[in-house]
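note to self: dont lose this again. the chain is below, predicted strucutre after it. 333 aa total, dont forget to put it in the shared folder this time
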Amino acid sequence: MKALVTGGGGFLGRHIVSKLLARGDSVRVLGRQAYSDLEARGVETIRADLQNATAVEQACRGMDMVFHAGARTAYWGAWRSFYGTNVLGTRNVLEGCRKGAVRKLIYTSTPSVVWAHGGLEGMDESVPYPDRYTCPYPATKAIAERLVLEGNGVGGLLTVSLRPHLIFGPGDPHLFPRIIERACRGQLVQVGDGTNKVDVVYVENAADAHLLAADKLGAGSPVNGHAYFISQGVPVVLWAWINGILERMQFPHVGRKVSYGMARAVGAAMEIAYTVLPLPGEPRMTRFLADQLATSHYFDISRARKDLGYEPRISTEDGLDRTIKALQSGSLN
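---
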């Protein structure tokens, strides 16, 4: 089989690529950089932006399936940058698939598309999209997910959307580095009472789910046109988990605390300041980030287990062991 992976040079994308190669598939990657290490493994690479419709169409040609993992991910930034990559880019992928007669599209979404102010505990895929978002990232990912799911069956294309939550593992460029960086600077502050539970997923398990979804797409399949939460199946108590990571990395536990209400108020003020003033970088707190850090958000993966045959092969503890060892050795893979 021939597969295109958008964002194939990224964290999750690389693991999807590796698993495709391991089972003998031919792989092409579309990304904004050159990936000589992937090319050395026999991967064809196309360097282009998702907003380049012509390049996306060319990348989709001759493919049996497309894994659309490329996205703009951050908790702060200009709407246009998120919309351009996440929405216009996804439209280009959908159009490229149809013009290239691609049969299957597997889209990497996020649980944040259904999550707004407040917590979600044990919810399944029936939970609706909220009316309003506090950050361009989930808002634009929700628009894109709807486009993908509504596009199922159009032009012979079958689609599915996966919603992995807080992906971690060796090579993680976001979650662990941010925790460690702030710990080094003494800037880690617990938001809320510390009892909130959240879903996490080890990166190899998330990649497994993508290949399972691709294999299950087909005529009459219950997977067609649906979204699935993907996680370890058991949430972690967020701040206890973070403190456990810090302890294993020989950093002190988080000492400072701030209430959820205060963090959200500070986040709102910072959002205004960074919108009005030409301040560099990103605010240390936003309403979206306060919500993420203080409320529970975990989901029922029964549907993924039933329809996809998904089961997290690598436990949370084993995944954490592998991640810590990689960090301590300085390994990126």
